[in-house]
Fold this sequence. Notes:
Pfam families: Lactamase_B_3 (PF13483). By secondary structure, the chain is of the alpha/beta class. 16% of the residues lie in helices and 39% in strands.
Amino acid sequence: MVISLLGPSGIRCQVADFSLLVDPPTKKKGNLVLETEVDVSKKDLPEEAVVAGAGEYEISGVRVRGINLGNGGGVLQTAYAVKFDDIRLGFLAGLKKAPNQNALDELGETDILFVNIESSVLPKKELVSLIKRIEPSILIAPTDKGAKTLMEEFGQKVSREEKLVIKAKDINREDKNKIIWLKSE
Length: 185
C-alpha cells in the first residue's frame, strides 16, 4: 500500500490500480471515496463509489464500516474503520466531541490511524488521550501543523516523507503511536 496526502486534508491509499480516497479535493477521483463530513442540507446523493455515513460496505474487496459521530450544525460526521490490503485503517475527521465507547469499539483495532488535529475542537490533551485509547501502531495527521502537534505531544521527532509504502507484514503491532509525517501534494 502506498499512502500519500492530497491537498490540505485529503488522503490517498493505493494498492496496484485501486485507490481509496478520503476527503479528497473535489477534482480527485478514486475507485472508492470516503467522506468524513457531509452537509446534510444538500440534496445531492453521493456517487456510487462514494461512501458518506454510517453502515457496513464492501467495495471491490475493501471492507468499510462507517461510524456515526453525530450531526451538528447540519453536518453529519462519520469515522471509518477500513480493512484494505490486510491493513486496518481508521479515519477520524475534525472531531466536534469525543467519540463514545461504542464508537471506539466499532472502530476496533487500528494499524494506521489518520486524525485531523487542526479541524478538531477537542482540547489537545483530550485528543491525545483518545489516540492513546485507540492504540494505533502508526499515526498520521494530514496537515503539517497537525503532525507537528502530534510530535510535540508524543515526544517524537520525525522528518517529512513524500509517501508511506507499507505492507501488512511491515506493521509491528507491538509498537504504538509511531508518527509518520507526510508531505501533501
